[in-house]
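Can't paste images in this forum, so I'm doing it all in text. The chain is below; anyone willing to post the predicted structure tokens underneath?
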Amino acid sequence: MKTRVLFGVVGFAFVLLALYVFPPVVLAIALTVLATLAVYELTTPTGLVKNPAARRIAWYTALLFGIFGWLGQDHDTQQVLLLYSGVALLMLVALFAVLLREHDTVDFQQITVAMFGGVGLPIMLLSLWRIFCMDGGEFLVLLPLVAAWGSDTCALFAGMAFGKHKLAPVVSPKKTVEGAIGGVVGATALMLLVVYLFNHFAELDIHYAAAALMGAIGAVLGQVGDLSFSIIKRQSGIKDYSHLFPGHGGVLDRFDSVIFVAPAAEIILRLFGI
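Text version of the structure:
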């Protein structure tokens, strides 16, 4: 527990430095590394992608998404999307080349896992970078984290206080329906409070309807993400995806909920013209 708390404090300090002290490239590099490591954790420790070439293609694709996301921060959105589409197409062709060449030992399941890892995970996680690049992004990027981790915390305490009905007894025995509801309510209230503070002290203009949506939808999607990656671990027979973060596990253990929440937050912010 001591190691877990200590690493959490160090991690929080790094986040603050990356957002408000270090140049933006530090955050871009950190998120790119996290996205690439997330792909590694999905494809390798789980044993879901046994072919080395398919794994490397997925890793390199995630790395390219991060690099192009950083390089494209000052360019037209359509140009960045074109780059993303080109990378995804090249990855698809490369993976099917592996399947055709080694079809005796590589099945289609490995190709689909590699494709989801190399394209899906970085696009979702790198929503944090795209939010950071918005006006006031150094504050906005905290919102999906508040929704995801705030929901986890509120669900924990609500479950301890009121939990009676199991939410997913096989996948996560400690989660309860009451805890899940408490997570949604708590995350929504917390998000409204954070947005109120940002609007008044950081001079932002975030619509409170957007805040409520991010809180509620983020809490639901965060719990879906948590349970989804827990299922993958259970089916793969592993306890943690890695030991990258002492006391916390790997990227997919710590950011499982954020991966689902970040793109939803980005969509909501863009829909409300923020």
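The mean pLDDT is 90. The beta strands are 166-168, 172-176.
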